[in-house]
Amino acid sequence: MTRYTEKQKLAAVLAYRKGAGGLRATASAHDVGVDSLRAWIAAYEANGKAGLVAKRRTIYDLDFKLEVLRRMQDESLSCRQVAALFNIRRLDMVAEWSRLYVAHGAAALQPGWKWEQKRMSKPPSRRDDRDAVTNDQRGREELLRDLQQLRAENAYLKKVQALARTKSRSAPVKGR
Hints:
Elements: H1 6-18, H2 23-29, H3 34-47, H4 62-74, H5 79-85, H6 91-104, H7 113-119, H8 126-132, H9 140-175
Helix pairs in contact: 1-3, 3-5, 4-5, 5-6
InterPro entries: Homeodomain-like_sf (IPR009057), InsJ-like_HTH (IPR055247), IS150/IS1296_orfA-like (IPR052057), Trp_repressor/repl_initiator (IPR010921), WH-like_DNA-bd_sf (IPR036388)
Domain Insertion element IS150 protein InsJ-like helix-turn-helix: 8-57, 64-114
Family: Belongs to the IS150/IS1296 orfA family.
């Protein structure tokens, strides 16, 4: 992995913002990856030159992580956008927080959570989890799957009813 100076990052971002070339052309001209340039542009737009400064590794607390996820949800932001907005060094970290939160709740965002889970014995089966969890505690994804299934069933029943009505209306016409 190549490290770039703030000058190199700024030069690439400013060249892109001038509009002389597209994202790929600018990345190629400055010998950087397209994804890196895209991240630098987002960081620059959110935080100016400070967004391009090399950041040290940071351990984020639970409240910060929850605020990032809340803002991402409320404003329908992508992981890249919210990482730039909060000046988070790695956008994949935000995606990981989101996955953990959806799957295991806020407790999974606590420092050290992964290590504790690895030391646990065999996790309970999916069936047991589903039986133990009430409707109020079910995850958003499970509720969306249920809603999709109910909509499909509803649409199927409507089609059957419409077909039955069509047959009952057309039956007397055939007898004439």
